[in-house]
Design goal:
Pfam families: ABC2_membrane_7, ABC_tran. This protein is an alpha/beta fold and 762 residues long. 54% of the residues lie in helices and 9% in strands. It contains 27 helices and twelve strands. The strands form three sheets. Strands 6-7-8-3-9-10 form a six-stranded mixed sheet, sandwiched between helices. The protein has a four-stranded antiparallel sheet with strand order 2-1-4-5, covered by helices on one side. A two-stranded antiparallel sheet has the order 11-12. Strand 4 and strand 5 form a beta hairpin. It is flat and about 105 Å long.
């Protein structure tokens, strides 16, 4: 008999091999963290030493604490213009946003502010193409061309108000997978790692890079750090424009200020940052280059420099009390809580006042080219003086010892060997020497936002590109290469499988508990089958039915978390360019190991508890049919039914199919009636029927069947042999039918995931 089930044994071997791969992958991932920590420390020490070398020469030099190595934007700059933008609700036609006009200039940080109900988030959704709940009116221009930010999805990052993150992954893993999935397929691994380092540094997450994010039940990183991760997921795609919906909500004033300062750094590399904020402290408010204030009814009451808001309202006749937070006072003015010198000017008239008294926000002209030339001459003179003081004046190149003396003359005393080797690579050491001009150029480049060294040039040539090109006033056509193409399925799928495999291993405590519960259920339902699993026992089909129903309920309900709780995560990843098919199949692939494991475990424990006759493989085949079908039901309902009702919906569905339609006596009575169609369509009929008929075949044939169960046997045979015209046995028919049902249910789940809530995937 063992030879009959050779393919089942091969499947078990593949299953065990898959489990080994998952465990080995987890061990490799764990060891890689140590290497990543060491690499991060080396790069930070190298940066610190570079900064100290510059300040040792010119103490008051304006040198950034960190220079970006991977965050080279996909396009140099984006200008967003909008004219008379409005939104009308599809439900009742009510206008919730009206006539918003203005612009978001490139390389600036802008805030959208207003009292509650002013339409701040609605306006951001409108210009991003995410206002699926209404009709958008007016014009939106991207680099002078009538368009929508939704059409340049590859160049846009959108940070939702809720912190939608992978709770089982570490901070670094979150950023890494976002960078892998949202950058070009051919981006080298080294370039991806530099992007990750940039994001971790700019968002101040380096100290917690290997911490699990966690959730409400399992405490992980802090709320402020979680918010930074939420932003970092978008930064990993190197967007040219970053849109954020209330990134400071729920944070204390100090943490909020730190986050805004981090975002302010991004404008130095060419990024346009636009965010909705709610009554910030004034020191935070002044960090914004531009402010768009919306009044009640969703109309513009001010758009211009943040420093110009207070003078503007004063000119209108509003007077701010001493010691008042100006940002809070602005909201009170807009909400009509502050009286004006002119009684006729009410809050409803602020929009009209802005239209009639609109100010042009002038730029501080005059390039600082002359100042930069003077700074360079000052630095060169200081550098020559320093070299002379060290006895290195007049040398065209420095050897190892001379360079080490130059380094030690600064505050960078305790430089590790790894950091020193990294520094030499960046400087372009060759044959143990570095040219004097290369050292000077490196130190001069330290004053920029990007790294300018021997290694950064390699990264650009390998595919990161440069964001320092000229600014174009007109967008290319949608087929232009700057928009890129959505990554192929064959690229995204293995990345997502790897991500889900890590999440799978991290939830091992849940797996242990689930396995224990499955074992308990197998013992209980197996024990009540003792001495009843023979053809002559009238209870045999009923006990088989109950055991299949138990397994089906466990598997179906256990499959709900595959998509149920993570639908917001899917909406975000789909909006960022992740293929629905890759996301869906990666989740199903990894969770398949749980379904198969429970099948093998339940069958083995159940057989021991039931002292079941027949061989293990016969029972396994039948139970796996039930598990596959129930898994399909769970996947389908997890994508279609709200999370809070999906458990009940799954239980009801499986109980109706397995405990009602496919119950042995119901099948016997269904033959020859309309109920036979329902029994035919239920996968439990095929799994239970195959199991019962196989028991009969192996334990004496139909002659051994109890007289009162003959109609049950005939009912199952009628349905199971109705396909194939008698040329296909009932086992093969059952296999095919349950497999088709499971595949169709999973396919329906995929369609539901793809086409439901389409607006949230924009």
């Amino acid at each position: 008999m063992a030879g009959t089930y050779w393919w089942e044994q091969c499947m078990l071997g593949l299953f065990v091999a898959g489990y080994v791969v998952l465990v080995v992958n987890a061990l490799i991932n764990r060891r890689s963290r140590l290497a990543q920590t060491s690499k991060s420390k080396i790069m930070n020490d190298c940066e610190r030493c570079s900064v100290e070398m510059v300040r040792n020469i010119v103490p008051d030099a304006a040198v950034p604490e960190y220079r970006f190595r991977g965050m080279r934007l996909k396009m140099s700059a984006i200008h967003i213009g909008f004219e008379k933008v409005g939104v009308k609700l599809n439900s009742d036609g009510r206008c919730i946003l009206e006539g918003v006009t203005g612009e978001f200039r490139p390389k600036k940080m802008a805030a959208i502010m207003g009292p509650s109900g002013a339409g701040k988030t609605t306006f951001m959704n409108a210009i991003c193409g995410r206002a699926y709940y209404g009709t958008v009116t007016g014009q939106i221009r991207v680099n002078g061309k009538v368009s929508s930010i939704a059409e340049i999805k590859q160049l846009r990052g959108f940070v939702p108000q809720d912190d939608i993150v992978h709770e089982q992954l570490t901070v670094r893993e979150q950023i890494y997978y976002s960078a892998r999935l949202r950058n070009a397929e051919g981006t080298p691994k080294a370039a991806i790692e530099h992007i990750v380092e940039d994001v971790l540094n700019v968002m101040q997450l380096l100290d917690v890079q290997h911490s699990i994010v966690g959730d409400v039940e399992k405490r992980g990183i802090s709320g402020g750090q979680r918010k930074r991760v939420n932003i970092g997921l978008e930064l990993a795609s190197r967007p040219t424009i970053l849109m954020l919906d209330e990134p400071t909500s729920g944070l204390d004033a100090t943490t909020a200020l730190d986050i805004i300062r981090s975002l302010k750094q991004l404008t130095a590399i060419g990024m346009t940052v636009v965010m909705v904020v709610h009554q910030p402290r004034y020191s935070l408010f002044t960090l914004f280059d531009e402010v768009l204030l919306l009044g009640l009814g969703g109309r513009t009451v001010y758009q211009g420099p943040s420093q110009g808001v207070l003078p503007y309202f004063r000119n209108l006749g509003f007077h701010m009390p001493r010691h008042e937070n100006p940002a809070d006072w602005f909201m009170d003015v807009i909400a009509g809580k502050v009286k004006n010198e002119d009684p006729s000017l009410r809050c409803t008239g602020l929009a009209d006042s802005w239209l009639s008294a609109r100010q042009a926000s002038g730029e501080l002209g005059g390039a600082t080219g002359q100042n930069r030339r003077d700074d360079k001459l000052t630095f060169l003179a200081a550098f020559d003086e320093k070299m002379d003081a060290l006895g290195l004046g007049g040398l065209d190149s420095l050897n190892d010892a001379q360079f080490l003396a130059f380094v030690h003359s600064s505050e960078a005393k305790n430089l590790s060997d790894g950091a020193l080797a990294e520094l030499k690579q960046r400087l372009g050491f060759q044959d143990g020497q570095i040219a004097r001009k290369n050292l000077v150029n490196f130190l001069l480049g330290m004053q920029g936002s990007f790294s300018h060294d021997a290694l950064s040039g390699i990264l650009v040539s390998e595919g990161l590109g440069s964001s320092e090109g000229s600014f174009s006033t007109g967008l290319s056509s949608p087929t232009s290469s700057i928009f890129g193409k959505q990554a192929r399925f064959c690229f995204q799928y293995p990345v997502l499988v790897h991500q889900n495999a890590i999440r799978w291993v991290r939830s091992w405590r849940h797996k242990v508990l689930s396995t224990f519960l499955v074992t308990v259920a197998a013992v209980v339902f197996g024990a009540q089958c003792r001495e009843k699993l023979t053809p002559e026992n009238i209870l045999c089909p009923l006990k088989i039915n109950l055991s299949h129903l138990a397994l089906g309920l466990m598997v179906g309900i256990a499959c709900l978390p595959i998509f149920g709780a993570d639908r917001p995560t899917f909406w975000r990843e789909s909006a960022s360019g992740v293929r629905v098919s890759a996301f869906f199949l990666a989740r199903c692939t990894v969770f398949m190991f749980d379904v198969l494991m429970w099948c093998y475990l339940f069958t083995g424990v159940w057989m021991l508890a039931a002292d079941a006759p027949c061989d293990y493989w016969m029972w396994l085949i039948a139970f796996r049919m039930t598990a596959v079908s129930s898994a399909g039901i769970g996947v389908l309902l997890s994508t279609m039914i709200p999370e809070h009702t999906s458990t009940l919906a799954t239980a009801v569905t499986i109980l109706i199919l397995g405990g009602g339609i496919s119950e042995p006596q119901s099948v016997a009575e269904a033959v020859g009636t309309y109920k036979e169609v329902a029994a035919f369509l239920s996968p439990f009929t095929w799994a239970i029927g195959e199991n019962y008929l196989a028991v009969i075949d192996q334990l004496g044939g139909e002659d051994a069947v109890n007289f009162f169960a003959v109609d049950i046997v005939e009912g199952y045979k009628t349905i199971l042999e109705s396909v194939g015209g008698g040329h296909i046995d009932y086992v093969t028919n059952s296999y095919i039918s349950c497999s088709v049902f499971g595949v169709l249910a999973v396919l329906a789940g995929y369609i539901g995931l793809r086409w439901s809530h389409r607006g949230k995937q924009a």
